[in-house]
Amino acid sequence: MLKQNQSQKLLQKLSPQQIQLMKLLQIPTTNLEERIKEEMEENPALEYADEDNTDQDEYRLENEGDAEEFESSEEEVELTDDTAEKVELDEFLRHEDDGDYGYGDDYYGGDQEQKTTPVRVETSFHEHLLDQLGMLELEGDRLRIAEQIIGSIDEDGYLRREPTAIVDDLAFGQNINTSLEEVNELISQIQDQFDPPGVCAWTLQECLLLQLKRLPQNADTKNAIEIIGKYFNEFTKKHYDKIQRHLGLSDDDFKKVIHLIIKLNPKPGSAYTIVSKAESYIIPDFFVFNNGGVLELSLNSKNAPELRVSEGYREMMRAYERGDKKNKAQKEALLFIKQKLDAAKWFIDAIKQRQHTLLQTMQAILDFQREFFLTGDETTLKPMILKDIAAITKLDVSTVSRVANSKFVQTEFGTYKLKYFFSESLQTESGEEVSTREVKSILSTIISGENKRKPYSDEKLTEMLVEKGYNIARRTVAKYREQLNIPVARLRKEL
């Protein structure tokens, strides 16, 4: 049975500008230039500003009025034949001479560097292996089988396909009939002759054995081979006393053997791995300078070129204004021009608002963690969550989160991710709240100074932190230790 009823609801609808801004806020500086190029490809009304024709206009943090107006704007433009007749040129051309959409040198606080893109020339790991195939003097199907084997090696240097699977791959993929014996023979040749040593192994144990067999064979090497071959499980768990008893070695001889094994490379292909993601190259979004005790904040502008509305589209609007007759085709052209001009202005406004929001948020973080930016001492970090910065900036928590995500700030003490400055609080015995970052720093210091022959257990670490006034449980210490990528006491043990 169908029923009709009325209900009153509150709905919030984001304007296109707001949606565009939210997406831009998440983009780090390393990807902003690519995003701008994508927008320019879609919208011919948007172009780079010519330095000779663009007035240098300073955009400052205190322009909060413009920012609030942008955020609250939800006006939608309805493009019809009626509105086409009422288009006023001033709406689109009013900023033609005042450089309103340009970003000047003053805004970024320095001379613009020449925009160049460095090109890396490197040999990948698989290319390095393929170059060595000439040593095997293979031809025809055997060469293609060896290439298939190399293609099955991952970036760490390990073979991730079983010989039977490689035989099937060759049969179904390349119509090559081969045997398990032939594949294993070529795998052995790659393992024995190719660099780096240890490549094409299936397991870590085999990888280490392959490297040891390439070394000069002496007493230490033979003992190392025996340890990895017979006592690998005990070695990984650092049960050194048990291994030493079985081998009957003195302390000095056993130390030399263990140090020999530790020097081996568990990932032989890692030295050749090329990481192509933009995130692997940290380009700071902000710069903080200490000018005689006064902290100065600036924004990175390398990947934010100056933008403006296309001069060609301005001329089209002028031509329409000068025309006497406005037929249907001219009206449709005008609507298209108006849409592109609107989109260009919206995007430029979004870029401006992005800069404003980034600076506003980073300035709040800078003021909140002022002691750290002055001293670089991790223990001076205050407990700070997204809600704290949102309250200072009057921004939504989700907006602050978008700014803090994938953004970096360069200081005189190093480059940090913005999320580094956010941490929960922990209460001391005196009732004072301290940052969990401070507790982690002290925990790391204690572990780095411990006797590696007898490393501290989590229970002992808890007692030491309690003695320093930090009210903390053992399971919390274990959690912080894992977050610091510090193994348990047994695995920290050294000879």
Written account of the structure:
This protein has 495 residues and is an alpha+beta fold. It contains 24 helices and eight strands. A four-stranded mixed sheet has the order 3-2-5-6. It has a two-stranded antiparallel sheet with strand order 1-4. Helix 11 packs antiparallel against helix 12, helix 12 crosses helix 15 and helix 22 packs across helix 23.
Number of β-strand runs: 8
How large is the radius of gyration?
A: 32 Å
The helix count comes to 24
Please give the oligomerization state of what you see.
single chain
DSSP helix fraction: 40-55%
Distance between the termini: 81 Å
- Major sheet: arrangement of strands: 3-2-5-6
- Tally of discrete structural domains: 3
Summed up:
The protein has 495 residues and is α+β, with helices and mostly antiparallel strands.
Topology readout:
Blueprint: H1 16-26, H2 29-42, E1 46-48, H3 64-72, H4 81-85, H5 89-93, H6 105-108, H7 125-131, H8 140-151, H9 163-173, H10 180-193, H11 204-214, H12 219-230, H13 232-236, H14 240-247, H15 251-262, E2 286-291, E3 294-299, E4 307-309, H16 311-322, H17 328-368, H18 370-375, H19 386-393, H20 397-404, E5 408-411, E6 414-417, E7 425-427, E8 433-435, H21 436-448, H22 458-467, H23 474-483, H24 489-492
Parallel strand pairs: 2-5
Antiparallel strand pairs: 1-4, 2-3, 5-6, 7-8
Helix pairs in contact: 1-17, 11-12, 12-15, 16-17, 17-19, 19-20, 22-23
